[in-house]
């Protein structure tokens, strides 16, 4: 039953309003399930909002609103109390049907959306800061798929350019005797070493050597260099794929910078002929100062192509080849100017799909001492960070189960570690800069990934100990306040997923998961389940199973796996 719709229709009749009526949900259950504030009517009725609430309530009480058991004026508000027995039974019934399950896709849409995210470059570190964009992109893809949208997950990786030239230069000059390793930290350390050595290059001679390698890399004429690039590119990509698998992240399409280099040069030259770009001190630039966007460089003075020109090619490829209806770039807000310049240039080029392009920004991840950087090495490598959290998780698991086998211990610890890492990123407002607190993310209590997994495992333990088949069609009766509270929170799941989609914000679902777990733990502490009399025991087991169902789906939308035991 759509209680909100019924209340709005009744209010519209009494008020004679054609525009949409907005209802609120009181935080305190004692006030009611829905509330209508009367402040906006004071000007029309020329009366005190409290008096208006009283008069409208009297009129509403003369008519019967389907599903509403009581209408109470409270100051400037009209509170509506719905039939709790009907409401709770409807919610539980819907949860146990296939309607709310992720795999069912509620409404199949014809819309096709490409989400480009992660963009981890080869020959560089994958650090804690990268986890945010990767987790956010995967979660958004799942949220959209839950709304029936066809999603193409895309990863655009920098596998060529100046950063690769620096890595190859440093390896050839200082690390040539070292065997190539499929290891994230080894790859990252060579890049950091290159940056540090170039920082001390007072004469500029070392940078000239790097520039020469960059030109050779673009031309692909140096066979030995090209072969080294291919081998090191491959081990970089293999190291990244291991990380993506651990983070429950997958991609349908991979774009690489080397694939759009030639077209990037061509498009830069074409823009010069159309007077959109110009040559300035040998470099090819687009002057966007009049638009307040500065100067955008497409080609360096030596003719090498920058990722600005490559991004123009990529934008067009997405729509030409994949026929998408929308292209979303999930990229940190430090690239905001770049995307403004990109979109403005596409607009000047009269690119017909420019309005379908969106830069979805997210804030950076910082350490307490400042910004992370793969250039300076002032960051936490994902591999090191994961290992540390896995070890911590193992200690926590052993406290609860001292007889656990090594294989099971490793399995659980990895799931807990990934939940801790991903949830710590996704629970935040995407726009907010995160100062990463390792101790907080590892906590098994509070608003953390491990706490949510523990809540799910506790519910699973109750079901397992019950050793009876749960009646999923049971009719709930005479429920206690905290039972009603929990069921109502379960009933918000569909609305929360729609809100997360509308705002492109996974934190909506993350924080809902926490609030839901809090409601469950309150219910669990106040009311016995396994020792209750048969009828009540069956009801409470059904509520516990409904909680497990919804929390698992909610965490699934965040790309977080659950554990049956902690």
Q: Keyphrases for this structure?
A:
single chain, 566 residues, alpha/beta, Gyrase A, domain 2, Rossmann fold, Isoleucyl-tRNA Synthetase, Domain 1, five-stranded parallel β-sheet, three-stranded antiparallel β-sheet, 20 helices, globular
How would you describe this protein?
By secondary structure, this protein is of the alpha/beta class. Helix content is 53%, strand content 12%. The chain has helices at 3-15, 42-45, 49-60, 84-96, 128-146, 162-174, 184-199, 205-219, 223-246, 261-273, 307-322, 336-348, 382-400, 406-426, 438-442, 449-466, 481-491, 493-503, 507-526, 534-557; strands spanning 34-37, 68-74, 77-82, 112-116, 150-157, 253-256, 278-280, 283-287, 295-299, 326-332, 357-362, 365-367, 370-371, 434-435. It is globular and about 85 Å long.
Topology:
Layout (H helix, E strand, L loop, with lengths): L2 H13 L18 E4 L4 H4 L3 H12 L7 E7 L2 E6 L1 H13 L15 E5 L11 H19 L3 E8 L4 H13 L9 H16 L5 H15 L3 H24 L6 E4 L4 H13 L4 E3 L2 E5 L7 E5 L7 H16 L3 E7 L3 H13 L8 E6 L2 E3 L2 E2 L10 H19 L5 H21 L7 E2 L2 H5 L6 H18 L14 H11 L1 H11 L3 H20 L7 H24 L9
Parallel strand pairs: 4-5, 4-10, 5-6, 10-11, 12-14
Antiparallel strand pairs: 1-3, 2-3, 7-8, 8-9, 12-13
Task: Give the low-confidence spans.
Answer: 102-106
Strand order of the largest sheet: 6-5-4-10-11
Amount of helix:
40-55%
Number of helices: 20
| CATH-derived architecture of the largest domain | 3-Layer(aba) Sandwich
* CATH homologous superfamily classification of the largest domain: HUPs
Largest sheet: 5 strands, parallel
Overall shape: globular
Give the rounded overall mean pLDDT.
91
Our Rg estimate from Cα atoms comes to: 29 Å
């Amino acid at each position: 039953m759509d209680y909100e719709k019924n209340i709005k229709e009744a209010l519209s009749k009494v008020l004679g309003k054609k525009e949409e009526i907005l209802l609120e949900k009181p935080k305190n259950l004692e006030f009611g399930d829905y509330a209508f504030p009367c402040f906006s009517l004071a000007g029309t009725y020329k009366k005190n909002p409290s008096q208006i609430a009283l008069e409208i309530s009297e009129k509403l009480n003369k008519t019967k609103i389907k599903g509403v058991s009581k209408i109470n004026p409270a100051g400037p508000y009209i509170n509506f109390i719905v039939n709790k027995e009907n409401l709770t039974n409807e919610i539980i019934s819907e949860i146990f049907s296939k309607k709310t399950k992720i795999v069912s896709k509620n409404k199949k849409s014809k819309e096709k959306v490409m989400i480009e995210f992660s963009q981890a470059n080869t020959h560089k570190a994958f650090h804690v800061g990268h986890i945010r964009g990767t987790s956010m992109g995967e979660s958004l893809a799942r949220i959209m798929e839950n709304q029936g949208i066809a999603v193409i997950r895309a990863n655009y990786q920098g596998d060529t350019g100046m950063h690769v030239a620096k890595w190859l230069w440093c390896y050839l000059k200082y690390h040539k005797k070292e065997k190539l390793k499929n290891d994230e930290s080894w790859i990252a350390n060579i890049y950091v070493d290159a940056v540090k050595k170039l920082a001390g290059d007072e004469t500029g001679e070392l940078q000239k050597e790097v520039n020469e390698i960059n030109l050779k890399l673009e031309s692909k004429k140096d066979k030995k260099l090209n072969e080294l690039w291919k081998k090191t590119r491959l081990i970089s990509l293999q190291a990244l794929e291991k990380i993506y698998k651990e983070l429950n992240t997958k991609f349908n399409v991979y774009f690489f910078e080397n694939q759009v280099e030639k077209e990037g040069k061509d498009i830069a030259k074409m823009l010069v002929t159309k007077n959109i770009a110009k040559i300035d001190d040998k470099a090819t630039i687009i002057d966007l100062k009049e638009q307040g966007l500065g100067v955008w460089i497409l080609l360096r003075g030596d003719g090498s192509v920058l990722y600005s020109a490559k991004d123009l090619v990529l934008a067009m490829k997405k729509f030409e080849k994949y026929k998408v209806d929308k292209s979303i770039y999930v990229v940190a807000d430090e690239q905001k100017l770049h995307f403004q310049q990109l979109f403005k240039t596409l607009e000047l080029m009269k690119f017909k799909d420019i309005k379908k392009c969106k830069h979805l920004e997210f804030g950076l991840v910082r350490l307490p001492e400042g910004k992370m950087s793969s250039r300076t090495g002032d960051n936490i490598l994902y591999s090191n960070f994961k290992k540390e959290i896995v070890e911590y998780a193992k200690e926590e698991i052993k406290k609860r189960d001292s007889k656990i086998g090594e294989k099971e211990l490793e399995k659980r610890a990895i799931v807990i570690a990934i939940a801790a890492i991903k949830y710590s990123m996704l629970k935040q407002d995407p726009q907010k800069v995160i100062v990463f607190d390792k101790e907080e993310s590892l906590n098994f209590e509070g608003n953390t990934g491990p706490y949510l997994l523990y809540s799910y495992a506790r519910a699973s333990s109750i079901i397992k100990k019950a050793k009876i088949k749960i009646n999923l069609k049971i009719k709930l009766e005479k429920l206690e306040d905290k039972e009603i509270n929990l069921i109502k929170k379960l009933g918000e799941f569909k609305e929360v997923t729609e809100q997360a989609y509308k705002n492109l914000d996974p934190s909506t679902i993350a924080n809902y998961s926490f609030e839901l777990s809090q409601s469950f733990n309150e219910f669990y502490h106040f009311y016995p389940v396994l020792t209750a009399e048969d009828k009540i025991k069956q009801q409470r087991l059904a509520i516990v199973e409904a909680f497990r169902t919804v929390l698992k789906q909610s965490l699934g939308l965040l790309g977080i796996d659950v554990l049956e035991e902690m």
